[in-house]
Amino acid sequence: MAFAAETICVQGSNERRDPFGAISMPIYQNAAYAHPGLGKSTGYDYSRCGNPTRDEVQKTVALLEQGTEALAFSTGMAAITALMEIFSPGDHLIATDDLYGGTLRLWNTISHKNGISVDCVDTSNVETVKAAIRPETKAIYLETPSNPMMKVADIQAIAELAHAHECLLIVDNTFLSPYFQKPLTLGADIVVHSGTKYLEGHNDTLSGFLVVKDDALYQQLNNIYKTTGACLSAFDSWLLLRGIKTLAVRMEQHQKNALAIAHWLEQRPEVEKVYYIGLDSRPDKALIDRQCSGYGGMISFRLNSAEKAVKILESVKLIRFAESLGGVESLLTYPMKQTHADVPVEVREALGVDEKLLRMSVGIENIDDLLADLEQAFA
Ligand SMILES: *Cc1c(COP(=O)(O)O)cnc(C)c1O
């Protein structure tokens, strides 16, 4: 029986494994499993290769993304690093130009050394992506909405393009979570998550996921996973399960608060531009409403001066000046100095990531309290 997202969040795979009927999935803090006999297994032999608590979070995330299998990693970067092992020297990838700084650092340093090249282009334009395809291109890698400029790529159109050229489509779905966007249903082959963000949702646990819908791809990735070993611990798997239980209600509240803050920012004379995918004024609104079932809680905005941006960062009290995103607490980030510190200045500025740009991960606090904090920080 197929359940709705809210039910999957709360109930997980709904496979009642616990012999004592525990409602909360037990934490199998365990490395090795006894064999019932020669050549027999309970299904578990060694926790790097499989752990019941981790299996449950993997099944839950796979169900939420409408994939068949998921792999849970110790961090989002561990997931992306393992994913890069499916490529070989000489392979070429096309990626969103405006994406998570750590992913870019991985490609520029480690992948580059391994002979894999990545071209970052504006993936909000399908023609630009098409023009970047070469005979050796093996995958297209999207972040949509992008970070921090909130550009949206047409997943379905790019999936068709990728498949016409025998390329994989990979989508980092961290920003919207499967509650608001399901790339596998739009043609993507692999979904990436930093589970540290909305999935876990409480700014306290790192994790990463790869989700697929194709068995051969799963076997290939699972083999890399078991071999390289950056798997999520039982305790952190349990924290993820606990976080995911409230994903649906959190996402609704993040979005409600973000819409109110985006509208408030639009009215402020100090704000030059607001970047939020929930704004009706966006030219790509039709695509957003076709592709996503909600807009999430991530907003970027450009102030009319660098001094103002810095003053706001240093004046917020309830909202914290910190990196990361997707947790219940509201955070304000200075992308130029934090997430994009490693991106070359010319590239960063061409993207619009300058000293006047701030990014806010809107939490689930009371909206009047958040607006009052912004009001005093802007004053
Ligand atoms: C944070 C983040 C990552 C990296 O995840 P970690 O859990 O920090 O390793 C990758 N992609 C996006 C979009 C992120 O926000």
UniProtKB/TrEMBL annotation:
GO biological process, one term: methionine biosynthetic process
Residue numbers carrying N6-(pyridoxal phosphate)lysine: K197
Keyword Ion transport: no
InterPro entries: Cys/Met-Metab_PyrdxlP-dep_enz, Cys_met_metab_PP, PyrdxlP-dep_Trfase, PyrdxlP-dep_Trfase_major, PyrdxlP-dep_Trfase_small
UniProt keyword Transferase present: yes
Ranges that cross the membrane: none
A GO MF label: pyridoxal phosphate binding
Family per record: Belongs to the trans-sulfuration enzymes family.
The protein's name in its UniProt record: PLP-dependent transferase
Organism of derivation: Simiaoa sunii
